[in-house]
Amino acid sequence: MAGEGRGEGRNETSKPSGAAKKGAAKLSFKETRELEQLPVQIEALEAEQRALAEAMSGAEYHKRGGEQMRKDAERATAIEQALETAFERWAELDARKNAGSR
Fold first, then answer.
1. Chain-centroid distance, C-alpha 92
2. Cα 28–30–33 angle (5° rounding)?
């Protein structure tokens, strides 16, 4: 067991230096396109989120039935998670772009 702990420690210290070098690298063509598309994707997700929230807050919404209400709630959660992921990725790519331009 003691040997396992030492081996894990060495691997952990070697990984950040490789990740740091990669993080400072210039954006690839694919990453540049991804960075350009993220605002469009975020806007689409936010529009869907607003529409779903509006529908769910309507006075007649409960008449859609329990199954539809569960599906809508699941979709609202999925949208929230997708937005969080998109914002994090946007921040990561933007930071790398700005670091590479210095």
1. 10
2. 110
Phi, psi (deg, nearest 5) at residue 58 = -70, 155
Which residue in this structure is represented by tokens 């997700």? 45
Poorest-confidence range of 25-29, 46-50, 76-80? 25-29
Residue 97 structure tokens:
């772009």
Instruction: Report the candidate in 17, 21, 30, 31 with the shortest Cα–Cα distance to residue 92.
Output: 31
Q: What is the pLDDT of residue 101?
A: 72
Residue 13: what residue type?
T
CB 5 within 8 A of CB 76: no
pLDDT of 18: 45
Question: What gap in Å lies between CA 4 and CA 11, rounded to an integer?
Answer: 11
């396109």: which residue's tokens? 33
> Does 78 have pLDDT greater than 70?
yes
Q: Report residue 96's pLDDT band, with 50, 70 and 90 as the boundaries.
A: very high
- For the chain, the farthest-separated pair of C-alpha atoms sits apart, in whole angstroms, at 64
